[in-house]
Hints:
By secondary structure, this protein is of the alpha/beta class. It has helices at residues 14-21, 47-51, 97-107, 114-124, 152-163, 196-201, 255-265, 271-276, 311-327, 334-343, 424-441, 444-447, 463-470, 523-538, and strands at 2-8, 27-30, 61-65, 71-74, 125-127, 141-145, 179-181, 184-185, 210-213, 216-224, 229-237, 240-252, 268-269, 283-284, 297-304, 354-359, 370-375, 387-394, 402-404, 415-417, 450-455, 506-508.
Amino acid sequence: MSADYIIVGAGSSGCVLANRLSERHTVLLLEAGGSDDSWKFRIPAAVFFALADPTCDWGYQNGPEPFAANRTARNERGKILGGCSSINMMMYMRGQKRDYDEWASLTDSQEWSFDSVLPLFKRSESHLTKSSEFHGKSGEMQVTTHDRSDDPTIRRYKSAVLEAGFKWNEDPQDGDSEGFFDQDFTVGHDGVRQSTSRCFLDPIRGRKALKIETNSIVDKLILDRDNKRCIGVEVIQNGGRKRFECNKEVILSAGVFGSPCILQRSGLGPAELLEKNEIEVIADLPGVGSNLIDHVKCALHLEVKPGVTLNGSLGAIVAEMMPVIMTSPGEVTEEQAMRVFSKHGFDPSSIMSVLCGLFKSSNEKPDPDVMVYMMALSSLPTVDRDLASFALNLYKPKSTGYVRISSQHPTSAPEIIMNYLKEPEDVEALKRSLEIMRNIVNQKSIKEITVSEFSPGPDCPDVEKYIRESADTGYHPVGTCKMGVPSRDPMAVCDWSGKVAGVSGLRVADASIMPTTPTANTNAPCIMIGERISDFILQGL
């Protein structure tokens, strides 16, 4: 079949693109995964079951990481309608004003400045609890502020950060997110997860201009080599191969790992890598797969007194439901799952009890660079103590890595090296952040519920070793097809409009085009990218 536009990937950006473009053009949306029609992807509290489901995850692994004790780790990416927005922790954040103004500078386009992208954030948003010039009220995606003042542990956390001298931020979405705040989540008024599939695809399922094909793995692009133009895609579907051609453009929204790998398999990437894999070089683009940036995290863990955390409730839920899910997954209904959550005192519409905050790892930083999740849960594997975890995410790391194909075959696992902690500055920032966090948990409000610091421990002999042996992904990788000005930056893969250098009829629109990482979880910025690139296309840019 032929369509005006082919969109590869129905994730956070791709669903938005499909919605906007199909208002005026025919669109084919290709998704490698399947349907998100399950309670695991609707009930917010079921996120732990969604993340544990291998059928909706690409199964990526990064490492061995040379600067993080040579460890390997899972790096979950959504392989399902809605992409990562169907399996993520639902946190809605935009980032700092300076993040987007920097993008504008790096791309030579004010279209990416904070003032220019703010209306795009607002367009897709329908905030249920905030009304100001910084929030939309009529967008497709409902957002709500997660006020957990009913949780005595979170009340203690809030008191402690105020005792330690940190400011309270009433709205971290206005371009200045420094301070502690009640987190915004993509959860609707009915208590259901607001994935991009649910918000941007479900309402337009009957639109004749839009065709959605699931379980469709894009192998490579179809290129008119004489004219260096992309004219379609080659897809593996139901065990066979299909060709889909477009009248106008192909848009890659396959994610930070998927998009660069499709480009590489198609002959667009570093010449040396392509030649090694016996792929004809169409365009030598050394930046494809480079500039991989992630929010690396480590944590401080407290052993706390009985009744402080939700670990017991969550453990009971997992113990009751997991055996049934593993043996007869189709037999668990949404109603049954809701009953189990409620039975064990876990609000199904809530993801977790958490207090969030952004602070500077040092006074020399122009903006906050560390995000902390103060949880009434443990992020460690089961231990024989009741732990509360305080996860510290470095939102402005200096270390960068890469993703590279390992063969011509689309199902071969790529080589992913994050290079976590390669730059000494990142280690020092996390060391200082642990000390800042230790000051907070030593305030009276938290001290009263603490037994002891479990890890790294007050007498840890080598904090750097602890960081290198425990740090892992913050689940926000970006940058592998970065935007820039290709004529002056050879590592820029796309220009300001998402167009790929060296070939026409092809754009990228997902987290991979971010030239730097935002001071935020990346779902909301990816939705904004879908809005931005849609506008460029509809305006003929």
